[in-house]
Amino acid sequence: MLEILADRTYRHLFAAQVVALLGTGLATVALGLLAYDLAGENAAMVLGTVFTIKMVAYVGIAPIAGAFANRVNRRAFLVALDLVRAGAALCLPFVTEVWQVYVLIFLLQSASAAFTPTFQATIPDVLPDEARYTRALSLSRLAYDLENIVSPMLAGLLLAVVSYNSLFLGTVVGFAASAALVVSVLLPSPKQSEPRGIYDRTTRGIRIYLATPRLRGLLALNLAAAAAGAMVLVNSVVLVRSTLGLDASALAWTLLAFGAGSMLAALALPKLLDRVPDRPVMVAGAALMVLTLLGLAVVVAALGLSLPFLLGAWLLVGLGYSAVLTPSGRLLRRSAHAEDRPALFAAQFALSHACWLVTYPLSGWLMTQFGPVVALGLLAALAGVGTLSALRLWPKEDPEILEHSHDNLPLDHPHLHGARRHAHPFVVDENHPRWASQL
Fold first, then answer.
1. Are 406 and 431 within 8 A, CB to CB?
2. What is the rounded CA–CA span in Å between residue 35 and residue 33?
3. Domains observed in the chain
4. Sequence-ordered list of residues with C-beta below 8 angstroms from that of 136, at least 6 positions apart, any chain
């Protein structure tokens, strides 16, 4: 997997991702402490609002940014967004009112909503070979999982010698370093698409996404991952601290089990995906999450919750979670021309976070109102709906090259070369406004 780091451009981009993630992790810890300083016992409400603002920015801004990503120099665009994020983080230590936090977080997360899908869409242009790109996806998944472990540890060490406001300076350094690494390499810029109106550009990624069967299946799997992931991320603290009555270190081990499962899957997936198609791997990952949540619900109802059962369950959920999310970039890469990838990655970013916007509050409400058994059971059911929908929406036979006919184009159209029926790698575009079976 590490051999792809021999590519200088990718190595610098991966390093940019890592330092930006570390900076974001430091900001997450500092933000909780800042919220407590500003709001005291209402800190949870402040943080809940912050996370809602984050999701709204992701869902609303990403498609708009994706529409314009190919209209500007991609390297300059990414560097400018990193600098905006650094500037917002630099202002956070000086806020005195809660509303100022909301404004700065919206600015920072809006820049992230533009940066992340554009960055993700750049990687397949840097690594056009699918096997190398698959390893890059696994390496990226590992970076996210390691960030969940390293950032809190680093924050804890820094807080022993500096105030929490200094953590925001670490965030600034992370984003500034990311900008420097991006500016140090030349990025491929795919040809611009035909001139289009603002509405057409803004909705293009989502229209391609929803018109492509494998991506409709991916959206359903995103719902399954969000349902299971929300159970882990939202309710672990309640399960550990209230249900089990354990301390914060037990919570850290619980979240570590989830991250370890995700890392194990990310390490295994490159070789597995060389031999097995994406669909069975991703569906199996979703099914593993469903069965694990159901199994844990049965155990809790029959025997009560114990830490070993919770650790084992979260390890399995992490395996399934990574098996669903890691290959998703391969599906997006396969489903659009290079010039449409930023818009398509932005659509995935927005639609997947829309799933989280539903499951985050649902998970917390179910746990608060009905307890762990009902929360586990109903979130497993929601993940099951996503899994079964994926099986229905994503055909088992999903070849990249499709034979199809064009009744929608005149016979002298350059795309046809005089033959209405032909075969080629099929994606939704101007010449193919619907999937092949409908043409």
1. yes
2. 5
3. 1-192 (1.20.1250.20), 207-394 (1.20.1250.20)
4. 4, 10, 14, 123, 127
Interatomic CA distance for residues 113 and 106, integer angstroms: 10
Mean pLDDT of 170-191: 87
Cα separation, 241 vs 251, in Å, equals 8
Instruction: Note whether 178 and 18 are within 8 A (CB).
Output: no
Show the tokens assigned to 189: 């810029």
* String of DSSP letters for 107-165: HHHHHHHHHHHHHHHHHHHH--SHHHHHHHHHHHHHHHHHHHHHHHHHHHHHHTTS-TH
Distance of alpha carbon 4 from alpha carbon 378, whole angstroms: 41
Mean per-residue pLDDT, 9-17: 90
Whether the CB-CB separation of 332 and 341 falls below 8 Å is answered with yes
Return the structure tokens found at 380.
Answer: 């497993």
**Comparison of pLDDT for 259 and 387, the residue scoring more:** 387
**Which SS3 state, helix, strand or coil, does residue 360 take?**
helix
Hunting for tokens 């920072």 — which residue is that?
A: 108
Percent of the chain with pLDDT over 90: 35
Q: Model's pTM, two decimal places?
A: 0.83
Instruction: Record the tokens describing residue 156, joined without a space.
Output: 């804890």
- The pair of three-digit structure tokens given for residue 208, joined into one six-digit string: 């391609």
CA 394 to chain centre: 20
Query: What one-character-per-residue DSSP string does 288-314 give?
Result: HHHHHHHHHHHHHHHH---HHHHHHHH
pLDDT at 322: 92
